Amino acid sequence: MSRSDKWNLEDPEIRDMIERLKSEIAVEYGITLPPDGYWGSVPSKDLGTIGSQLKKRLPLVIEHQKRSQSEKRRVRRKS
Q1: Which residues contact 47 (CB under 8 A, 6 or more apart)?
Q2: How far apart are alpha carbons 30 and 25 in whole angstroms?
Q3: How many whole angstroms separate alpha carbon 5 and alpha carbon 7?
Q4: How would you label 43-68 residue by residue, b for 16+ Cβ within 10 Å and e otherwise?
Q5: Most confident region among 1-5, 9-13, 40-44, 62-66 by mean pLDDT
């Protein structure tokens, strides 16, 4: 199953989540954030670090969001 089958990367909410995670990971690893938002000037080694951590964390974050949304729905139905 490809990544695009799991996540709708066109969804602005998911795109925002990815951008937030990239920034969080960069700060954790002491990588300077590009002030203009252009990641092309960041060294490949740093981008690899961010990418590998993003690959590990994103599925966990999305799964957590799905669970919390389904729990909210259950609570609403019981009310």
Answers
A1: 39
A2: 9
A3: 6
A4: eeebeebbeebbeeebeeeeeeeeee
A5: 40-44
Residue the block writes with tokens 């937030």: 20
Mind listing the pLDDT tens digit for each residue in 23-58? 999 999 999 999 998 989 999 999 999 999 999 998
Using the predicted structure, report yes or no on whether residue 5 has a pLDDT greater than 60.
no
Q: Which residue has the tokens 């954790």?
A: 28
Distant-in-sequence, close-in-space partners of 42: CB < 8 Å, separation ≥ 6: 31, 32, 34
